[in-house]
Amino acid sequence: MHKGHKKHIIIEGITDDGHPFRPSDWAERMCANLCTFNKRRMIYSPLLQPTVNGGHKCISIDPELEHHQPAIYKSIMEFAHSNHLRIFHE
């Protein structure tokens, strides 16, 4: 890891009480906020990407998202808190 490199924020599709979050495509829906299309293929932003951790759907947020797209960052964090999703740093 580079010196000064910020850790990504991971929001895991598991609630605080251990239940999987539904709908199952929640991560892809959240990340679609910043995707682009190239030849009819969806390209996720490096700032916001769906991922899998321990078999659970997650989203990986580059901390720079807060500076480049503050409204989207705030919306995602509020969504995670209101749905009691697990949040940690990679």
Any chance you could write out the topology, listing elements then pairs?
Blueprint: E1 9-15, H1 26-31, E2 36-38, E3 41-43, E4 48-53, E5 56-61, H2 65-68, H3 70-82, E6 85-89
Antiparallel strand pairs: 1-5, 1-6, 2-3, 4-5
Description:
- There is one protein chain.
- The protein has 90 residues and is of the alpha+beta class.
- It has a single domain, classed as Uncharacterised protein PF12112 family, DUF3579 (Alpha-Beta Plaits).
- 26% of the residues lie in helices and 33% in strands.
- The protein is built from 3 helices and 6 strands, in the order E-H-E-E-E-E-H-H-E.
- The strands form 2 sheets. Strands 4-5-1-6 form a 4-stranded antiparallel β-sheet. A two-stranded antiparallel ribbon has the order 2-3.
- The protein is globular and about 40 Å long.
- It starts with 8 loop residues before the first strand and ends with a strand.
- 20% of the residues are buried.
Gist of the model:
This protein is of the alpha+beta class and 90 residues long. Helices cover 26% and strands 33% of the residues.
Please tally the helical runs, counting DSSP H or I stretches of 4 or more residues: 3
Instruction: Find the CATH superfamily.
Output: Uncharacterised protein PF12112 family, DUF3579
| Helix content bin | 25-40%
The first-to-last residue Cα distance is 11 Å
Question: Reading side by side through the largest sheet, how are the strands ordered?
Answer: 4-5-1-6
- Given the helix and strand composition, which structural class is it? alpha+beta
**Number of separate domains:** 1
Order of helices and strands: EHEEEEHHE
CA-atom Rg in angstroms: 13 Å
* Biggest sheet character: 4 strands, antiparallel
In round numbers, the mean pLDDT is 91
Q: Hey, roughly how much beta strand do the residues contain?
A: 25-35%
The CATH topology, please? Alpha-Beta Plaits
- What is the number of strand segments? 6
